[in-house]
Amino acid sequence: MKWSKEEEQLLMLWKEQGWTTKEIANELDTQVQTVYSKLYRMTHREELNTKKAQYYLDNKEELLNYNRKYTKQWKVSNSGKSASYQAKRRAAELQAVPAWSETLAIEEFYELRPEGYHIDHIVPLQGVNICGLHVLCNLQYLTAQDNLSKGNRFDAGATEQGLLLVQ
After folding, report:
1. Angle in degrees, 0-180, between the axes of helices 5-16 and 21-28, rounded to the nearest 10
2. 136 with 107: CB under 8 angstroms?
3. Distances (CA, A) of 90 to 47, 52, 83, 85
4. Can you give the pLDDT at residue 151?
5. What is the rounded CA–CA span in Å between residue 164 and residue 80?
6. CA-based angle 107:93:167, to the nearest 5?
7. How far apart are alpha carbons 68 and 66 in whole angstroms?
8. What is d(CA 73, CA 64) in angstroms, rounded to the nearest whole number?
9. pTM for this one?
10. In this predicted structure, what is the pLDDT of residue 157?
């Protein structure tokens, strides 16, 4: 359940006034456990974030392997969707290749990819508010982990720095 800032402020105010979690739950028309969990997370936010980060660091390789395994299983059990997504990606890439694109240089860029790296479009081909082109200056090498965590997002600050170097 998502809580708005106003609900969180009310929650803290009522707790400071001495309301019980049961009274707060009745007022918000929700379960006592939900209120208790939310209050705990709000009052222990830093501690929980630290524990979460430490857990990730301690189990990084195991978590990455699990994600890879899960992705492979999903692709097998959802082969139709997977094929559809790949076709959509190829179509977007084809539409994003301008006539002036350096096709041979792009092919060489792909061939020279270091082991363990992905090729990433700095400005995504299928972005929400912006769509990039499949051109050499829009490509970069990223580690697999960095590329998968970046997803389909666009970081304007990083792009401006990169474009300044290209120009």
Report:
1. 150
2. no
3. 44, 37, 11, 9
4. 77
5. 41
6. 65
7. 5
8. 14
9. 0.45
10. 61
Helix, coil or strand: residue 119:
strand
Helices 45-58, 32-43: inter-axial angle, 10-degree rounding: 80
* CB-facing half-sphere around the CA of 113: CA atoms within 13 A: 16
Structure tokens at 19: 């309301």
Task: Give yes or no for a contact between 33 and 1, defined as CB atoms under 8 angstroms apart.
Answer: no
Which H or E run includes 121?
strand 117-121
Distance CA 95, CA 131 (A): 11
Residue 124 amino acid letter: P
- 112 in Cβ contact with 85 (< 8 Å): no
CA distance 119 to 27: 52
pLDDT at 38: 84
Q: How do the pLDDT tens digits run along the chain, 167 residues long?
A: 567 788 788 888 888 888 888 888 888 788 888 888 888 888 888 999 999 999 999 999 999 889 899 999 998 998 888 887 887 777 777 788 888 888 888 888 888 889 888 888 888 887 777 788 888 898 899 988 888 888 778 876 655 544 433 33
Two structure tokens written together for 132: 């990039």
Q: Where are the domains of the chain?
A: 5-57, 99-167
